[in-house]
Amino acid sequence: MPFDLVDAMSVAADPAKPNEDAFAAETNDAAVLDGATGLGEMLLPGPSDAAWIAHFAARRLLAHRRDGEAPKEALRLALADAEKSFAGLRWRPPKDTWEIPFASMMFVSATEGGFGALWFGDCAALVLRTGEDVEIVGEAFDKRAAEAQRVKMMAEAKGLAPAGGVSRAEFLPLLRAARNKVNTRAGGWLLSPDPRAADHAASKRVAAPPGTLILLATDGFLALASDYDAYSAQGLAEAVRDKGLRTLSEELRALEDGDAEGRRFPRLKKSDDATAVLLRVT
């Protein structure tokens, strides 16, 4: 069953910096992607390596779907495209895993009676069927709780406020050590310029009758529920339906402005790029 695009929004954490989120939406497919903020010098031309992988993959995913490829094969081909492009564009090969561009992703494709989802990392889909409780697709809420605890422990160990930690020299060794585990059994897999990652994407088939609303979101937008307790998952999906994404983005930034150092809600950055796409199954 195809999708109608009801609403979409992507706002940078800081207007002076690149938006490292991306989204794409067409009749039968939609995706949101969240590039992992770089932890050192850039290897690619352009605004940032994280922005490159997110936007490149979003374009290529839907291009391969338009060519008739099945969703998982479209993902594999998009990552092979990224591998080729990364090798051709970079200034030098990465010296360690933490220099490779990575991204989280939620990618949905219409099927008979619902949709299929493929994902990496902490993007999610909230599925709101008429008269039913919301269904969460993905592990974003659990991942965000674990991340908040990790950030709190790091900040306390260094005697620093959490927000801003992604660029602090005191935090970089810990962040790079964690990033070095990505795409291993210990660290889990993310979208990357490596077609092998396609075999490690999580997947689920979801029933979604006509009228079902599907909210795809990166963790920066999901923080309203997962980090800041402004909404439950159910309440967030309903608020998007009733208020629209622009109003929710304003609420998000107001909450972050009120806790700029991240002491109440531990996080590495005051604000994060926030992206959301609202679909209706037709």
Shape: globular
Query: Which structural class matches the secondary elements?
Result: alpha+beta
Low-confidence stretches: none
Strand order of the largest sheet: 1-10-9-6-7
Cα-atom Rg, whole angstroms? 18 Å
What is the CA–CA distance across the termini?
A: 6 Å
Name given to the CATH architecture: 4-Layer Sandwich
Q: What does the average pLDDT come to? A: 93
CATH first level: Alpha Beta
Number of beta strands: 10
CATH level 4 superfamily: PPM-type phosphatase domain
Q: What is the CATH topology?
A: Phosphatase 2c, domain 1
Overview of the structural elements:
The chain is an alpha+beta fold and 282 residues long. Helices cover 34% and strands 23% of the residues. The chain is built from seven helices and ten strands. Helix 1 (49-66) crosses helix 2, helix 3 crosses helix 5 and helix 6 (233-243) crosses helix 7 (245-257). The protein is globular. The protein starts with a strand and ends with a strand.
Question: What's a quick, concise take on this entry?
Answer:
This protein is α+β, with helices and mostly antiparallel strands and 282 residues long. The chain is built from seven helices and ten strands. It has helices at residues 49-66, 71-89, 140-158, 172-179, 219-226, 233-243, 245-257, and strands spanning 3-11, 21-25, 29-35, 103-111, 114-120, 124-128, 135-137, 202-207, 213-217, 274-281.
